[in-house]
Prior knowledge:
alpha+beta
Amino acid sequence: MHMKSRLRKVSRVSHVWLGLVGGLFVCLMSVSGAVVTLRPPLAEWMSPSGASHARAGVDWDRAEQQPVAFAHEPVNRIYTFSDGDPRIHVRMRTSTDAVFDHVVYDTCAGQVLGTINLKWMDWLVDLHHNLLAGKTGRNVAGVFGIALLLSAVSGAFVWLLGRPDIRAVFRFRSTRAGSPREWHRAIGLGAMIVLCLEAYTGLWLCFPDTMCSTLSLVASVPKDARPARPKTNGVSARPVSLAVVMTSALQAMLDGRVREVRLPEGYGNVQVRMWRPGDLRSLGNNVVTVSNVTGRVVGVDSYSTKTAERSVF
């Protein structure tokens, strides 16, 4: 009995301090994450107006070359807006890794419409992903995630050690003295699963290799369908045109609608994210990987069909 009381005291103290640390981190991640999630509609809303509707096809080579000539910077990513909107959002790579220039291009008129001031959004994204400190910041975020996970687990442990009455979990007394504790218990137990899920997925983002190795000890882990960017090994290769890359990607996923194009620096692979019927995420969950040296598809990650297959064409 004494051991149980001591264990409960230790769990309670751990829960309080881990909850304070993890709680502050959750607030920061929740606010920044909520704004980051709104990037596509915010960019569309802030973009200068263009043509009323899009053409049947897109000249992808011109869509890359015109922003480069306008901003004198290489293209990092290309985002499309809602269906039927001829404008695309082109993110340009600058000398600062976490800050970009944002150009809006009209595929129907074939010209640059202007720029969007999204530097504040880039700052929020870097804060949310890396705590403004690169890889070190991401590791620190992982430590906070561990604290959040332990806080949720220790809170449930404290509750279980107190001989809980399941029927009284969501019962509240009208007295002022009992109300705060009961609200904390009910909300904490209700949010525990969500907090554990948030912490667990966050740890995957911070420590992907470690989490994958840990999971493989108890379950089979499917091989990543997205090939890693190849190393140059000192070989200089001339990338094929973006039009060739996009033609291969669209042929590999005929019912897909392009939502995002990620371009590497020189030699490497281009990742084309597409939306397909049945996807819940507006950006889509399907990725076609194309070599920008050969123009051939080297990987297809199809979420809509619940399969991840690797193929070489």
